[in-house]
Amino acid sequence: MSKREWIKKIAVIIIGSVIAAYGITLALYAGFGGATLAVLWQGISGTFHVSIGAASFIVAVIMILFVLIYDRSQIHIGTILYQIVYSLCVDLFAQMHVYSKYMWLNMLIMLVGIVLFAVGTGLYAAADLGRGSYEAVTFALAEKNHWQVKKVRMILDAAMVVIGVILGGKFGVCTVVTVIVSGPIIQFTVGRAKRIIKL
To answer: Which site in 5, 24, 49, 130 is 20 to 30 Å from 99, CA atoms measured?
Structure first.
């Protein structure tokens, strides 16, 4: 890759990370539960008295360490850069959230947040400089053991939610909608970003 291509990819990762962090923060604080991993972050945050951003970073570090041992080919510079920017921005945006007393408006904010999260994640993925920590665990387990990715992800999602709820995280509408909506939006964004930005 040329220097220009590297700069373009790094810029896309940073922009995607910021958008994804803003989206997940909107969705998380709307009051309808959290996305799968966010349920775990909530549980860790409440149990160990750390910020949501710190909780997301702790989970990511554990996952990255696991993948480095299990299948390090899944890890690249984008994995680390995404997580640092993402976790810092989650805490930054968490201090800025403003919501309405009307449930329907908060529901709309949650939906916008989920869409932004998926778009940001798609942008990051389009740069193709390593998988996110959660995706790295998913693909490492699937590829090493010849399991289907969707089945591994379903099991991991269920495990994250169960552990998160045990620790005090909130399962709700946001959790379900994120699982249903985010995949197609991420896939669409990856395809469009690669064509438009020429990644």
So the answer is: 49
Which SS3 state, helix, strand or coil, does residue 35 take?
Answer: coil
The one-letter amino acid at 183: G
Strands (E), the chain: none
3 state DSSP class of 45: helix
Tokens linked to 188: 């669409």
Per-residue DSSP letter, 32: S
8 A C-beta contact, residue 170 and residue 31: no
Q: Given this model, what pLDDT does residue 109 score?
A: 92
142 membership: H or E segment, kind and range: helix 133-145
Of the pLDDT bands very low, low, confident and very high (cuts 50, 70, 90), residue 50 is very high
- Which sign, positive or negative, has the C-alpha torsion 174, 38, 135, 110? positive
User: Is the model's pTM score more than 0.85?
Assistant: yes
Residue 90, amino acid: V
